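Good morning,

Attaching, inline, the backbone tokens for the sequence recovery test we're adding to the shared suite. The designed sequence is right after.
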């Protein structure tokens, strides 16, 4: 089943149960997005894989104009009231080159098997000097190889070094066991930024007892 079709099937659950069951910013995603993206001057900020549009208000609070793209029509049905959206493949963005001030991808890179191509597209649509913020599950401590069932420890089993897609998960309360995810080791992920021509600027982590989220701020050459 294509990834977007899998998300179509869980869109209502994601909006009404998964998101509503979370406390306010439990993984500090809003905090990291605010810190790394920074304030703008009202220009467009493209959210790649915007899903239900839950990050639009944070982007807007930074004096940026959020616009979103996603392949899942089910997720976009919830997003339309939060930001302007279009259904599109992130590997072939229907956006002119060098036309947006900023772009973000929040908790979506494991949903995109072609993420290196997505990063190349992000670099293409950014204006020179534009900023790109990636926030995603931490490749070292999250994945089918990681068991986070013990709140005091994370068990890392064989599999980290192998790039793969899996629905294996330590919990049935999350997204991975329902739609699957693509894993890339940390060097491969970071090299994809460099190969896209993006300059790495800052990093952040969040989560315990070992990081759950890795955030990256990069910039297009001016």
């Amino acid at each position: 089943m294509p990834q977007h079709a899998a998300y179509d099937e869980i869109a209502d659950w994601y909006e009404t149960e998964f998101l509503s069951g979370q406390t306010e910013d439990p993984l500090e995603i809003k905090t990291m997005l605010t810190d790394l993206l920074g304030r703008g001057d009202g220009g467009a900020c493209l959210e790649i894989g915007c899903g239900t549009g839950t990050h639009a208000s944070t982007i807007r609070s930074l004096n940026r104009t959020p616009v979103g793209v996603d392949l899942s029509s089910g997720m976009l049905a919830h997003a339309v009231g939060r930001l302007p959206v279009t259904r599109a493949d992130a590997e072939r963005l229907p956006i002119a080159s060098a036309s947006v001030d900023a772009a973000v991808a929040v908790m979506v890179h494991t949903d995109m098997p072609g993420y290196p191509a997505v990063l190349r597209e992000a670099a293409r649509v950014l204006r020179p000097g534009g900023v790109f913020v990636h926030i995603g599950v931490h490749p070292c401590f999250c994945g089918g190889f990681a068991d986070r069932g013990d709140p005091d420890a994370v068990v890392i089993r064989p599999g980290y070094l192998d790039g793969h897609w899996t629905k294996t998960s330590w919990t049935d309360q999350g997204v991975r066991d329902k739609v699957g995810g693509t894993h890339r080791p940390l060097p491969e992920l970071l090299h994809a930024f460099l190969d896209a021509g993006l300059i790495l600027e800052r990093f952040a982590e969040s989560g315990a007892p070992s990081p759950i989220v890795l955030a990256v701020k990069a910039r297009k050459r001016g």
